[in-house]
Design brief:
The complex is a heterodimer of chains A (about 110) and B (about 120). With about 110 residues, chain A is mainly beta. Helices cover about 0% and strands about 50% of the residues of chain A. Chain B is mainly beta and about 120 residues long. Classes of the chains: A mainly beta (about 110), B mainly beta (about 120). At the A-B interface, strand 5 and strand 10 of A face strand 5 and strand 10 of B.
């Protein structure tokens, strides 16, 4: 079982719709969760982090965490073509000193 | 306030040569992490360092790869006797504190290593 599992996509949604990449993680003791966005040929950029169960909103982005289900998602409202990128879910494991990344979900916003 | 600086951006080596990748963390950051990324794949953790200490090297291949973060100067990822399979993007990230405390990573632009 992969430590952080994501569907590679592509996840294709029309402009203006809600896009929702998500991931699951294997360590039930994990405490910190991050979403990074990576454009092709560029470095990852932190867009959201969440530590507690529930929702955390920042502009058009909402991170959702369900520790019982070991599930993390990112809602992107009013999707724009500029949101087309790979979204990487990352988790700090309870026993580790490093951030473990999923393989990423490619998101494509159709104009 | 400069971000994480990596150089070179592109590095071409022939099989058997050595590759040295450099990373200067953001000002005030004392924790450095190296990740490798193959095309269409996620980031694979390699090593986590603090000044003069290797904290976690569980992702480093057992041979040919080494990393350091001296008291003065940048962090160096060194790959000896490179092979074609080493071709990848190598990203460095830094944080002000330990990620175990929830600190966030900030990434450099990466070094694209191509082995001919």
């Amino acid at each position: 079982q992969k430590e952080v599992e994501q569907n590679s996509g592509p996840l294709s949604v029309p402009e203006g719709a809600i896009a929702s990449p998500n991931c699951t993680y294997s360590d039930r003791g994990s405490q910190s969760f991050f979403w990074y966005r990576q454009y092709s040929g560029k470095s990852p950029e932190l867009i959201m982090f969440i530590y507690s169960n529930g929702d955390k909103e920042d502009g058009r982005f909402t991170a959702q965490l369900n520790k019982a289900s070991q599930y993390v998602s990112l809602l992107i409202r009013d999707s724009q073509p500029s949101d087309s990128a790979t979204y990487l879910c990352a988790v700090i494991y309870s026993s580790a000193s490093k951030i473990i990344f999923g393989s990423g979900t490619r998101l494509s916003i159709r104009p | 306030n400069a971000g994480v600086m990596q150089n070179p951006r592109h590095l071409v080596r022939r099989r058997g040569q050595e590759a040295r990748l450099r990373c200067s963390p953001m000002k005030g950051h004392s924790h450095v992490y190296w990740y490798r990324q193959l095309p269409e794949e996620g980031l694979k953790f390699m090593v986590y360092l603090q000044k003069e200490n290797i904290i976690d090297e569980s992702g480093m291949p057992k041979e040919r790869f080494s990393a350091e973060f001296p008291k003065e100067g940048p962090s160096i990822l060194r790959i000896q006797q490179v092979v074609r399979g080493d071709s990848a993007a190598y990203f460095c990230a830094s944080s002000p504190g330990a990620t175990g405390a929830g600190e966030k990573l900030f990434f450099g632009s990466g070094t694209q290593l191509s082995v001919l």
